Amino acid sequence: IKCIGILTSGGDAPGMNAAIRAVTRTAIYNGFTVKGILRGYRGLVTNEIVDFHSSSVSNIIQLGGTILKTARCEEFKSVEGRQQAYENLKAAGIDALVVIGGDGSLSGANIFAQEHDIPIVGLPGTIDNDLGGTDATIGYDTALNTIMEAVDKLRDTASSHERLFFVEVMGHTAGYLALNGAIATGSEAAIIPEMDTEVDQLAELISQGFRKSKNSAIVIVAENPRTGGAMGLAERVKKEFPQYDARVTILGHIQRGGSPSAQDRILASRMGAMAIQAIMEGQRNVMIGIQNNELVYVPFSRAVRHNKSINRDYVNLVKILSM
Ligand code: ADP
């Protein structure tokens, strides 16, 4: 292997740039050449590939987003699209690939690697923390901090007006942001996708009379297309519990932005360097994960479409601490 290609795909996440920098510089340090592929798999299909040097990644560790740009690409979901991508890779002389992205991007990498002879190493880049085999993903800590700062501000107005606030955060398949966001902000409850088939979380919340001894309540809600998320809950409250003055704040894409936290920069730097080590060791079709602060190789098949279980102790903690 002489030349390593790198791309970012799917939803952007703070720390992707720190990962790009670490991959690029570790590769160059070890004698590889590096090429950057623009706009994720789309750039692979449309052949947007540029030479990368050490200076290509100067002064980016502190930046949110991704200098390589990211995109979603329908063509890559077809056999023909992936064939085109492979031909472009070969023509560019790229003989190993580092993919930074979330569940969809790594699913795509998994399929691509089964069809074509190219070693691929993945890095978990998503604020949702919804990949298997890793305790954390690049961008998750920064997003959690963004949520924390926003909810702290909402608390000021919630308590001044004695209101019930539903704050919607991202994570329609994983409640990590909602649950840990609730713990970090002392919120009254978290409503998460992992639990919404078991109990009616809203009814439980109201029946516990959470507002009796309090002058405000904040409930963090994971977005949920099926139930309508925070909006859906507020509508239900209006109908079933009109005594509450329910308000909704949807944090939306601000959760994806911002300068990465120290933790995300360090995680991205460690994982990026490890991706090159993995390629040198002959690993292929693995994602770099972190478990108990040790970097590990996680086969793509175990990383994607994985329902990481939520820690029940955390759910109980929110209940106990908000009484
Ligand atoms: P994320 O990586 O953030 O989860 P997406 O789910 O949008 O983002 O996936 C990003 C891209 O990965 C898609 O636009 C597509 O090009 C590719 N991809 C996702 N799933 C598959 C799949 N099953 N087969 C091939 N490519 C896929």
Automatic annotation (TrEMBL):
<dbReference type="InterPro" id="IPR022953">
    <property type="entry name" value="ATP_PFK"/>
</dbReference>
<feature type="binding site" description="in other chain">
    <location>
        <position position="223"/>
    </location>
    <ligand>
        <name>substrate</name>
    </ligand>
</feature>
<dbReference type="InterPro" id="IPR000023">
    <property type="entry name" value="Phosphofructokinase_dom"/>
</dbReference>
<keyword id="KW-0067">ATP-binding</keyword>
<dbReference type="GO" id="GO:0046872">
    <property type="term" value="F:metal ion binding"/>
</dbReference>
<keyword id="KW-0460">Magnesium</keyword>
<keyword id="KW-0479">Metal-binding</keyword>
<comment type="function">
    <text>Catalyzes the phosphorylation of D-fructose 6-phosphate to fructose 1,6-bisphosphate by ATP, the first committing step of glycolysis.</text>
</comment>
<dbReference type="InterPro" id="IPR012828">
    <property type="entry name" value="PFKA_ATP_prok"/>
</dbReference>
<keyword id="KW-0418">Kinase</keyword>
<feature type="binding site">
    <location>
        <begin position="21"/>
        <end position="25"/>
    </location>
    <ligand>
        <name>ADP</name>
    </ligand>
</feature>
<dbReference type="GO" id="GO:0006002">
    <property type="term" value="P:fructose 6-phosphate metabolic process"/>
</dbReference>
<feature type="binding site" description="in other chain">
    <location>
        <position position="155"/>
    </location>
    <ligand>
        <name>ADP</name>
    </ligand>
</feature>
<dbReference type="GO" id="GO:0003872">
    <property type="term" value="F:6-phosphofructokinase activity"/>
</dbReference>
<dbReference type="InterPro" id="IPR015912">
    <property type="entry name" value="Phosphofructokinase_CS"/>
</dbReference>
<feature type="binding site" description="in other chain">
    <location>
        <begin position="186"/>
        <end position="188"/>
    </location>
    <ligand>
        <name>ADP</name>
    </ligand>
</feature>
<feature type="binding site">
    <location>
        <position position="247"/>
    </location>
    <ligand>
        <name>substrate</name>
    </ligand>
</feature>
<feature type="binding site" description="in other chain">
    <location>
        <begin position="126"/>
        <end position="128"/>
    </location>
    <ligand>
        <name>substrate</name>
    </ligand>
</feature>
<dbReference type="InterPro" id="IPR035966">
    <property type="entry name" value="PKF_sf"/>
</dbReference>
<feature type="active site" description="Proton acceptor">
    <location>
        <position position="128"/>
    </location>
</feature>
<keyword id="KW-0963">Cytoplasm</keyword>
<keyword id="KW-0808">Transferase</keyword>
<feature type="binding site">
    <location>
        <position position="163"/>
    </location>
    <ligand>
        <name>substrate</name>
    </ligand>
</feature>
<dbReference type="InterPro" id="IPR012003">
    <property type="entry name" value="ATP_PFK_prok-type"/>
</dbReference>
<feature type="binding site" description="in other chain">
    <location>
        <position position="212"/>
    </location>
    <ligand>
        <name>ADP</name>
    </ligand>
</feature>
<dbReference type="GO" id="GO:0016208">
    <property type="term" value="F:AMP binding"/>
</dbReference>
<dbReference type="GO" id="GO:0005945">
    <property type="term" value="C:6-phosphofructokinase complex"/>
</dbReference>
<keyword id="KW-0547">Nucleotide-binding</keyword>
<dbReference type="GO" id="GO:0048029">
    <property type="term" value="F:monosaccharide binding"/>
</dbReference>
<feature type="binding site">
    <location>
        <position position="103"/>
    </location>
    <ligand>
        <name>Mg(2+)</name>
    </ligand>
</feature>
<feature type="binding site" description="in other chain">
    <location>
        <begin position="253"/>
        <end position="256"/>
    </location>
    <ligand>
        <name>substrate</name>
    </ligand>
</feature>
<dbReference type="GO" id="GO:0042802">
    <property type="term" value="F:identical protein binding"/>
</dbReference>
<feature type="binding site" description="in other chain">
    <location>
        <begin position="214"/>
        <end position="216"/>
    </location>
    <ligand>
        <name>ADP</name>
    </ligand>
</feature>
<dbReference type="GO" id="GO:0061621">
    <property type="term" value="P:canonical glycolysis"/>
</dbReference>
<feature type="binding site">
    <location>
        <position position="11"/>
    </location>
    <ligand>
        <name>ATP</name>
    </ligand>
</feature>
<comment type="similarity">
    <text>Belongs to the phosphofructokinase type A (PFKA) family. ATP-dependent PFK group I subfamily. Prokaryotic clade 'B1' sub-subfamily.</text>
</comment>
<feature type="binding site" description="in other chain">
    <location>
        <begin position="170"/>
        <end position="172"/>
    </location>
    <ligand>
        <name>substrate</name>
    </ligand>
</feature>
<comment type="pathway">
    <text>Carbohydrate degradation; glycolysis; D-glyceraldehyde 3-phosphate and glycerone phosphate from D-glucose: step 3/4.</text>
</comment>
<keyword id="KW-0021">Allosteric enzyme</keyword>
<feature type="binding site">
    <location>
        <begin position="72"/>
        <end position="73"/>
    </location>
    <ligand>
        <name>ATP</name>
    </ligand>
</feature>
<feature type="binding site">
    <location>
        <begin position="102"/>
        <end position="105"/>
    </location>
    <ligand>
        <name>ATP</name>
    </ligand>
</feature>
<dbReference type="GO" id="GO:0070095">
    <property type="term" value="F:fructose-6-phosphate binding"/>
</dbReference>
